[in-house]
Amino acid sequence: MGKNNQQKPIKQYQKFGIRKFTQGVASVMIASGMFFMAGGVASANEVAAQTETTTQKVAEDTAPKKAEEKQEEKTVQLDKTQLENYIKEITSNIEAGKYASKTEESVATLKSELSSAQATLTSAKTQEELTKAYQNLVTTVNSKLKNKPVEKKEAQATEDTTNGKPTVGKAAANTEPVSETNSIANTGKNDERNGKEINKENAFRADVADTVTAPPLSEEEQANHWKQYADKNTERLTKQIKWFDVASSKATIENLGEGDRLKVGTKFTQEISPGYVVTLTVTKLAPFNSTDEYKKRGGAGYDANAQNVYKDNTPAELKVVTQGGYSVAKTNGMDTKGKTVIQSVVDGANVGVEFSVKSTLNGKEVPSNVVFLTGEEAGSSEIEIYTTDGDGFELVTELSNSNVPGKETARSYIGEIYERRTVDTAGHGQNRADGQLGISYTLEGSGKPAFAPFLADKGAGFFNTTVTTDTVITATAKDGTIHADGLGTQVFGPVSTHRDSGFSTPLVMTRNAKNIGMYIMSNGQQGSMLGFMVLDEGDAPASYGRVAHSISKSDGQKQPYLGSVP
Fold this sequence. Notes:
The protein is of the alpha+beta class. The chain has ten helices and 22 strands. The protein has two domains: 64 residues; 337 residues, no CATH class. It starts with 9 loop residues before the first helix and ends in a 16-residue tail after the last strand.
């Protein structure tokens, strides 16, 4: 995101640095008391008597006070809930064999740390001891558990029955008649759906775009792609999206944590159009390097049990806030006017959240169409990724502006790579040599132990290398690898929407989703938003690219067709 990019002038850099890394200051007041006694004397005998009496009196007065102080010390309340729950979770995982893929040595290390945490839970006298034990346990789970090496199975030797003589193969004749529908001929390697991942939650194949070897658009076409959306009615589109908004008076929010923090079980329900009800439920809080997609890419630092952490490797939480001054979507005309941005509580984190999605129309379950949008601005050093088990991501529009001084849109959003680079088409002076940061800025440097595992392959597991017929934006790494935006696939991002470089802001959508995810890794702050669109699947031409007309009765829009039965 722009606030972390070196392409900003030095003056602004300092300003943003303050915003991103201001530390809280706690002041402590120490109160002290004095006890003073004095008395006159008349004679030596009186002094002795008075001293004895006074000593006895002081002892009598002091004794109960000391007892009271000790009693107060004994009644200090410690919050053991966090550590206690985590111990239960790890213990349950061990008993269930969830660490079976880890080496015996690393599991033994975990068990040792678990025993230490259990002892601290019993003996701790301060909150600091409990916090430290919790952090040590989290660190062990996140960075000390090691995967077992994959065993390579040797192919079984087969008996040679040829006696050294050459063999001749004979093609077998087809013993079955060909069906008139030729359904057999269209299966196996001839199935047109090959290469498209099966949606395990839905009873049909996910609709993803065809994979191609080269970007479908030239560099010039990529840079100017935003212009076809420049005259679209952003205000109308904004009304047609119902955002995940924890401040909405029309939504029912359940199990939201203190300070609008997300937790597993947080549930959002809203009727977004008469009879059309959507429900989002948090099912998991974990970063992208814990996902099957990251594992499939062979990314360094993969851990199925990874948890959300800040860059110093302490446990991280997610909260929901309003769009702030860094919101490029707001700058480009899309103001959600609610608490819609999901971000880490503290700057600098590797975090993620997964939701189950359900939509019903007049009580009957129907497809869910979910949109995603950056909550701030994603600089070229920041990672923001969306996932779906539904259809491949479509580009709804590219938000832009021509009237905000110094932030006018100059080109479409860009792809990301590891290294710094020059982007000739960047605006507002950001096209200089090495003007754009790479994610090396986020991963490298001291004080970031949580990011260290990804240095081994330069963050390769975070990049999308699948180019499709729907791909709009690509970036070429120094080793020649093409990184794509993810359009047409089930994983979108990372891409940069840096505002001060004049990049557009993509609004993307997935249809037929039942499970979705949002993931962020940033050296500073970053956020994401999601919402729902009701789509007209009638024969009217699409307003935004391939996306069908969105409709909203609640905002007085015409309803050509929804598919409900009267």
